[in-house]
Structure formats: C-alpha cells, structure tokens
Amino acid sequence: MKFFRPLVLLSLLLITVKAFADNDSDIKRKAIVTAVSRAMQYQHFDPKPIDDSYSKDVFKLFIQRLDYNKKFFLQEDIDWLAKKYQSQLDDEILNQNIDFYYDVMKLFRKRFAEAKDFYPSILAQPFTFDANEEVIVDGKKLVWAKSTADLKEAWRKSLKYQVLNKLQELEETQNKQIEKKDTALKKVKTFSELEVDARAKIQKSNADFFDRVSKTTDNDYFTAYVNTLTSVMDPHTDFFPPKDKENFDIRMSGKLEGIGATLQEKDNYIKVSSLVIGGPAWKQGQLKAEDLIMKAAEGKDGEWFSLENIQVDEAVKHIRGKKGTTVRLYVRHADGATQEIPIVRDVVVFEETYAKSSILNFGGKKIGFIYLPEFYADFNNPSGRRCASDMRKEVEKLKKDGVDGIIIDLRSNGGGSLTDVVQIAGLFISKGPVVQVKSREGKPNVMEDPDHSIVYDGPLTIMVNEFSASASEILAAAIQDYKRGIIVGSPTTH
Known about the structure:
six-stranded antiparallel sheet, globular, about 45% helix, disordered N terminus
C-alpha cells in the first residue's frame, strides 16, 4: 500500500495563485511557474533535478495530454516544437519563460479548428463495410500524421469505427426488441436505415466533443500545463488554481454558500440537474430540476449576465455567492414557460459527504455498516464538522444498538484529513503510532493515537477497492497492523 498522497506543494501554491487570482496576464503565469518550480526544488520531499531529462518528459507529457489520440497535431508540428523546446524547457522554467506553452497552444488551436471541419463532411456520406481496413485505437501505438490528407484519413477511419460500433449497438437493441415483441418498436429498420441513425448519433457526439473543447478556457489549459510540470516531478503533486481550491474546500467540508443546485451544460445553456434538499433553491420552491438557466443577475438591480454557451464553472461564478445575498435567475421551465426567480443564498450542506450508518441483519446477526465517502474536515473553520467526531458518534450509536460487528466502507474514498484518520484509528486501538510523516529536512513526525480509550473493541472489517487512497490506506493499514480487523476488497488500493 502507498501510505499517503504527498501534497507538499499545496499551501505555497494556493497562496501564490490567490495573490494573482484577478490577473490572467503573462506576468501572473510566469510568477506561478516560478513559484511552482521553486516549491518543487526546495519543498518537495525527493525532488528530481530540473534538467534536460525533466524537460523532455514535460514536453512529451504536455503534448500527450493535449492530443493523446494524435488527431490534431502533424508530424511537422511535433518536429518543430521538439527542435525548439524539447531540451530547453528546464531553462525556460528556471528563467521565468513560458514561450513553449504559448507556441504549443497557438498550434493546437490552429489544428483544432482545421480538424473541426473534418467530421461533418466525412459523416455526410454513408459508410460501406466491405473493404479490408484497419484502425488503431490505442493512442500509444498511433503515429503523427505526415500531412493534412493523412490526418483526415485517420479521422475517416476513426469515425467509421465509431459508426460501426454504434450500428452494432442499434442492431442488437432492435433484435432484442423484435425477440421480446416490444410494442415500443414501431418499425423494423433496415441495415441502411440503422446506418443513417448511427451516423447521426456519432455526428452529435463529435459535435458535443468539439463544443466542449471549444469552451475550454486559456486558464484551464495553463492549469494543465502547470500540472504537467508537477506530474513529471511526482504524479501525486497537484497545482490548484483558485476554482479548484474552492471546490476542494467544498468537497472536504461538505458545504458551500450558494443556492443548492447541481448544474450541467445542456443545449448551450446551463441546466438544473437536481436541487439539494433543504437548500435555498429547494426552500424557495420555484426553481425545478430540468430548468434551463438563461441568465443571472446579482441583487435586485444588477445587470443580467447571459449564461448561453459557457462552461458550468463560469456559470457557477455568477450563481454562487455569500450567505444572505440575492441572485436573480431567468429560467425556462420544461414546459417552455420563462420566469425570473430571486433566491437568497445560504449555507448549503451536502449530507452525502458525511459519514452515515445503518444496521444489516445477516444470518441472525446485527452488523453495523458505516459509509465514509471522504476523510472530510472544514479546514477554514476549527469548529466545523469533521469526520473523526462524526465517526465516533456513528460507532457509539451502533455499539448502543448492540451490533455483533462493524463494517467500515472506504471504497472509492480518496482520503483527506490526516489528523482525522489518526483519531478514527484511535477509536479501535488503545494506543500506539498510526502513521509517520517526514519532511525533506528533519526527523519523522510520528502521529499517535491521542486517546488511549477504546470506543469499540468488537469484530471489525474495512472495505477497500482500487480507488481507496491516502487516508483510507492509512486507516486500513493501521487496523491490519494492530490485528484489530480484517481488510476486504480489491487486491490492491490506489
């Protein structure tokens, strides 16, 4: 098991980004790269040298992240970039230069615009499936196209493969309907008719893909570039821009200040997927799931801001806000009616974030089951809700109910608060170390169970899977090492 996910860069990077949060200039970006590189050099536990080898890895990974399936760049693009930058990125990074990022993005946008014109004409004509053709779908095995004609041919084969898969799916669905005499099947379609339907669906999925990528902001791409710098240094070190830091805090605390609606992009507008029960929008009563939010305005007299053709993250900036403030939404309901809806923002609590328990009756035994989705903690509020105190309450409640054993479900739990996992382990052991943390300099800091009392000493099982990470691995390992319970699930964790 990996015992914890290093985030040694976290606090410095967040402070740096917040300082430049309102400035998307070249100066800000150079300052961020400088701060990140210095943090990696001086604060990372085991830093790699920022040299030609590091430069080549950054070059390769960033290109791969932009165009993994080799459907945009040409070989001549890669050759030009490699000659100019492949062994020079270490010098760029150390000298506050980001010309590589700008040149790559300029080329990517040009090739993206060209590729956007490929799929409509290719999908306008029926495919025939009697030719002996091969298509490579593994990006690692693909090669860069040598010309625009070669690239368009690669798109043709890829689209034909997509249509063939969709056509097979449609045929299988129709055959099952025929077999079951499904009344929903109004007409049995021919192969040619199904091929038309398959092309239409692939046309729509590709249009959606290009639309999503078109909405990706320059800041999003720059974040991806900086995360490439950190990933090459260490795959578990991340760069958080302000919006990601805000989302991280929300996920860890289980609450935010806003209206309490889950949003998604739909038909070039922002659609309400669901409302948080008990949240401001739910209490106000006029906003409904499936509503399209056309525009938003701040306060009673603020100007309207159109939410047409923007990403959810951008829309959230105009809808989320401080407790007690008002946002006005102009929405189109599912029946076509439009309405202006004022909503007073408040604290929204996501109860699904928190630990919860139930009792399972199994073979005449009462088994307590606790689901812990995150090792959450409100890092901005010392008196806020924490998973350690919630887990204690759930364990005490199950113990009072006389359960014969307890199962703790940590499947897909990506971790969180280190302090809390130590306290949770302490619920089941009397004393002893749980984990040790070592910085680049100094002796290891051994984190021990602070409370020598045992809350529960009965049978215990920890459930994990391949997505259980960080604090989940620490708790599972401690329970296993102290022989306090058994670990069940996938052969390995994250």
